[in-house]
Design brief:
- By secondary structure, this protein is an alpha/beta fold.
- It folds into 3 domains: about 260 residues, Spore Coat Polysaccharide Biosynthesis Protein SpsA, Chain A (Alpha-Beta Complex), CATH 3.90.550.10; about 130 residues, UDP N-Acetylglucosamine Acyltransferase, domain 1; about 170 residues, Serine Threonine Protein Phosphatase 5, Tetratricopeptide repeat (Alpha Horseshoe).
- It contains 21 helices and 38 strands.
- The strands form 8 sheets. The protein has a 9-stranded mixed sheet with strand order 16-17-20-23-26-29-32-35-36, with no helix packed on it. It has a 7-stranded mixed sheet with strand order 5-4-1-6-13-8-14, with helices on both faces. Strands 18-21-24-27-30-33 form a 6-stranded parallel sheet, with no helix packed on it.
- Helix 2 links the parallel strand 4 and strand 5.
- The longest helix is centred in the C-terminal third of the chain and has 22 residues.
- The chain is globular and about 85 Å long.
- One of its GO terms (cellular component) is eukaryotic translation initiation factor 2B complex.
- One of its GO terms (molecular function) is guanyl-nucleotide exchange factor activity.
Length: about 725
């Protein structure tokens, strides 16, 4: 397997023993049911590659030499997959499975790892649904340096900035708002709460907590990446404390309130790197889009890293495998992947979607924002809207899948049948005893124990018998499958963790709800109640900072969703305003980020000449001019946008440089920029060096025309 340039890190200098990792493969993940009743989550395809391959590829490239994969339910599927994979044949990289059939928690798993005596030093702890391209070098070095100074520093958690929406109190990955208190000087984690009361946005801290720590920052703009660097003491603590089951809820919170042992957890924040965990269907959708848009580079579809088949990247973020049969009248839109051996019929339209290998898609089919796995058959005239379809599914003619639908393995949907929004359909009948959200790796909530035996028994029913028993009208005439009832809370909560975007009516409803102030004052009470995103410190020389790069990325992601999912511009404004409040940005920052996104869209739309690029740009500006104008509220802000465009033409988007003047004219003609702003910009450049006047000179004819028009207007007024 070829080594990935720029990611491999030399861990030998950091440790005298091989760097090791424990990868926790999940059991039946409640949020991914019914799919995970038949296949473990780590083997589910993420942009056509099993999730575990992303985790192993990152560990291998980051310098890890030994990985112990702990698996419980579906363990044979995982071991069989790894035995046939390339991971077992790589030099200086060993993968060993540890199986258990009676472990029901992360605590049980780590206790068994400790009993096996296979970990000999600091190790990396992740779940098998982790996608990352971060370097471990600095985090490992910081962890070791702290451990030398303080033997109680036993764990380092990787975090990143990810402000939750003020409307939904969720991150873009669909996770609940997380509140952390961190010492700004030492980066020690002092408080961790992922169950914030959204009603008033408050968390309760004991007064002694604030008195014992001279400097504290309380954040609600951090996300837990679920990547931990652990010392051996972590394993021994799980062995000594059988109450520790859940890694965050029990272990982390337990250590933070334990005044006797004195163990400490620290944080390592990443900025430009990528790290995320597929925890629910919304994070599945978000991370898939990030992979397609190459935020996870080099873990992207066109670079081979796990034995995946070669795939070609074309313009507009379109990926195509080999042996595709694509009708000349079919349309493939931006940010779409078509797997090898797939056929697509006449006049079908596919955009912002991932299509697996060996699929057969008929004529006049519309697929938008959906995930179609391998060997799926979709007959003529079907419409799929933000749905997820597993291997071997047959969708007969005229079927409509409403947003949020999940079709599990080998389901058959009868002709002309409309599958209601957020429905989950499976060949397996819904279990009568619903388990909790408890997962083997980083579980979410609840205290239920998985009835693995009964579920395995259900899966042993012969396929033919199961199919006959499930052949009913639930999914149309000649359909095969059961529609599962929604989880507790009904459809009202389904949108939170769906692959579908938040419905417009829900956005409008949330917009009407009162929103708490972003940075209220801190009150010290007998039991201090602290609003998130407030910091308290003995000094004022450590102000909170927001990374503008993160803000720009969030705005671009919001804009692209609007482009490819048909979101109304007023809803985009709601989302951008939410980001603006979250990152404490000005109106100009919003305008700048949106302008960049609009121009990048034009640049990435297929073109081969300057003329085609110009037409793309005119189209993009015309479509999104109202959005741009909303945030350009003064002449100074318009001038800043022109200067932003100059910078783009010189650095990140040089293709625009030859047509700068023509685009400037279009921005004026579409009322995005005013005459006063353009003339003021030109006036400011009069005394500048020649290198700073490149685009003023290019625009000279247009500028002179504006001046003449201004003089004529003055004469008419006189």
């Amino acid at each position: 397997m070829a080594q990935k340039k720029g990611v491999r890190e030399d861990a030998d200098e950091l440790s005298h023993v091989p760097l090791q990792a424990v990868l926790l493969a999940d059991s039946f993940a409640q949020k991914f049911r019914p799919i995970t009743m038949e296949r473990p989550k780590v083997l589910l395809p993420l942009v056509n590659i099993p999730m575990i391959d992303y985790s192993l590829a990152w560990l291998e490239s980051a310098g890890v030499e030994e990985v112990f994969v702990f698996c419980c339910a579906h363990s044979k599927q995982i071991t069989d997959y790894l035995d046939k994979s390339e991971w077992l044949s790589l030099p200086k990289f060993s993968v060993t499975t540890i199986e258990s059939h009676d472990s029901v928690s992360a605590g049980d798993a780590l206790r068994l790892v400790y009993e096996r005596n296979v970990i000999h030093g600091d190790f990396v702890l992740i779940s098998g649904d982790t996608v990352s391209n971060m370097s471990l070098t600095q985090a490992l070095q910081d962890h070791k340096d702290r451990k030398k100074k303080d033997s109680n520093a036993i764990m380092t958690m990787v975090i990143k900035k990810s402000k939750p929406s003020s409307l939904t109190h969720q991150t873009r990955l669909g996770n609940d708002e997380l509140v952390m208190a961190i010492d700004p000087n030492t980066k020690e984690l002092l408080y961790y709460e992922d169950k914030v009361d959204a009603a008033d946005g408050m968390v309760t801290l004991d007064k002694g907590f604030l008195l014992d720590n001279p400097a504290v920052k309380v954040h609600n703009d951090k996300e837990d990446c679920y990547i931990d660097i652990c010392s051996l003491e972590v394993l021994s603590l799980f062995t000594d404390n059988f109450d520790y089951q859940h890694l965050r809820r029990h272990f982390v919170k337990g250590l933070l309130v334990d005044d006797i042992m004195g163990y400490k957890i620290f944080t390592h924040e990443i900025h430009s790197s990528y790290a995320a965990r597929v925890d629910n269907f919304r994070s599945y959708d978000t991370i898939s889009k990030d992979i397609i848009q190459r935020w996870t580079y080099p873990l992207v579809p066109d670079i081979q890293f796990s034995g995946n088949r070669p795939i070609k990247l074309e313009r507009q973020g379109i990926y195509k495998g080999s042996d595709i049969q694509l009708s000349r009248s079919a349309q493939v839109g931006p940010f779409t992947l078509i797997g090898s051996g797939t056929s697509i019929g006449d006049y079908s339209k596919i955009s912002n979607s991932v299509i697996g290998e060996g699929c057969s898609i008929g004529s006049n089919v519309s697929i938008e924002g959906s995930y179609i796995w391998d060997n799926v058959t979709i007959k003529d005239g079907c419409q799929l809207n933000h749905a997820l379809v597993c291997d071997g599914v047959v969708i007969k003619s005229g079927v409509v899948l409403e947003p949020g639908v999940v079709l599990s393995f080998k389901v058959v949907v009868g002709p002309q049948f409309p599958v209601p929004a957020y429905s989950k359909v499976s060949l397996l009948p819904q279990p009568t005893n619903q388990d909790s959200d408890e997962e083997l790796e980083y579980a979410d909530s609840g205290s239920g124990i998985l009835d693995i035996t009964s579920l395995n028994s259900a899966l042993e029913v012969p396929n033919g018998e199961l199919s006959r028993s499930s052949d009913n009208a639930e999914v149309g005439v000649s359909g095969v499958g059961y529609i599962w009832s929604v989880c507790e809370g009904g459809h009202e909560e389904e949108w939170r963790h769906s692959v579908a975007p938040i419905p417009a009516n829900k956005v409008a409803e949330l917009r009407k709800a009162p929103i708490e102030p972003d940075t209220p004052k801190l009150e010290i009470l007998p039991a201090a109640r602290v609003k998130p995103d407030v910091e308290t410190s003995d000094s004022d020389d450590d102000p909170a900072t927001d990374d503008p790069c993160d803000f720009d990325k969030e705005v671009e992601a919001t804009f692209l969703r609007a482009v490819h999912e048909g979101v109304d511009q007023e809803h985009v404004i709601i989302e951008v305003n939410s980001l603006r409040l979250s990152y404490n940005m000005a109106s100009l920052d919003c305008a700048s980020a949106i302008f960049w996104s609009v121009m990048k869209l034009a640049l990435e739309t297929s073109h081969s000449t300057e003329g085609e690029l110009f037409r793309n740009t005119v189209s993009a500006i015309t479509t999104w001019r109202d959005l741009l104008r909303h945030y350009l509220q003064s002449i100074d802000e318009e001038i800043e946008i022109i200067m932003k465009f100059e910078e783009m033409c010189l650095e990140s988007a040089k293709d625009f440089a030859p047509i700068f003047a023509k685009i400037l004219h279009i921005l004026y003609g579409k009322d995005v920029l005013t005459e006063e702003a353009i003339l003021s910009w030109a006036s400011e450049k009069e005394g500048a060096d020649a290198s700073d006047k490149i685009f003023v000179n290019q625009s000279q004819i247009f500028i002179e025309w504006l001046k003449e028009a201004e003089e004529e207007d003055d004469e008419e007024e006189e």
